[in-house]
Amino acid sequence: MDMKLRHDQIAGMNLIYKWHSFEYFLDAMQELGFESISIWGGPPHFDCDWKGWQDTSYIRKGAEHRNLKITGFLATSTNYRYQVGVTEPEHRERAFQYFANGIRAAAECGSPSVGINTGWGYRDMDREEAFKRCADMLYRLCDVCRENGVYLALESLKSLETTVGVTLSDIKRMADEINHPSLRIMPDTGAVSYNGERLEEWFQVFGEKIIALHFVDGMHQAWGDGGSPLADMMQTLEQHGFKGPLMLETSAGKYMTDPKEADRKAMAVLSRFVK
Questions:
Q1: Is residue 229 part of a domain?
Q2: Closest CA to 15 of 269, 226, 256, 190
């Protein structure tokens, strides 16, 4: 198959490098031949809370110095201190301020989008109420995105992580509920495969609203280690003319001691599909 994937669509991510310095991550990206990166906006590499966020100049300057383009930014959530569907009013407002600050930080970094998930509600409480809370929060955050010139890129999760935004139909319902011009879609191929779906189904439903992918092999492993249908996914990207970033959100613990080797392996596998 004559793939037309551009080399700069493959974006390394610092999530798997969190046991190493941010400078080490940037140097590894340059050494491995990456042209694009996606920023995982979590400590120790980046600090953000509901009151403010760390100066982003070191991110921009470090990337520019190595000729790396920042194509995505991820506001950490779900199992962290802040999440979209939180119930308690005081925590809810702080969560909103946290994600709003993450959006502002993403804009400062020059990222075109900030990734986020649907959040979750307590499992002993009504799912529909959690859905409404999540949709309301995401709509408010879309307004912040519009003010800052970025898109909010929504992804799905696994059923172990939430009951709100798991399946393709869940995300479609959420997107329809939010109905905001700053909302876009970012399928996570790990969750897509885990939920027994195909990437093609997501493109059939969302089309050009898909602006980025969290692109991993199986349960967030490096490409070549997980058994996901890479050729099928690549065919989907080709057929739909996808030009957005493929963010390598590798996070399996086995790569923590040598994350560079994981990205080296992934790049070697994906290079077969680069024109």
A1: yes
A2: 256
Quick check: is 2 in a domain?
Answer: no
Any domain includes 113: yes
Q: Which amino acid is at 219?
A: M
Q: Do 234 and 204 contact (CB within 8 A), yes or no?
A: no
Taking only the tens place, the pLDDT of each residue in 95-129 is 999 999 999 999 999 999 999 999 898 999 999 99
Q: Give this prediction's pTM.
A: 0.94
The three-state secondary structure class of 23 is: helix
* pLDDT one-digit tens code per residue, 20-67: 999 999 999 999 999 999 999 999 999 999 999 999 999 999 999 999
CA distances from 242 to 161, 230, 235, 238 (A): 28, 15, 10, 6
Q: For the chain, what is the domain count?
A: 1
Q: What is the CATH number of the domain that holds 29?
A: 3.20.20.150
Q: Which residue has the tokens 């399946």?
A: 167
DSSP string, 58-72: HHHHHHHHTT-EEEE
Any domain includes 1:
no
Domain of residue 75, residue span? 7-273
Among 211, 123, 228, smallest CA distance to 175 is for 211
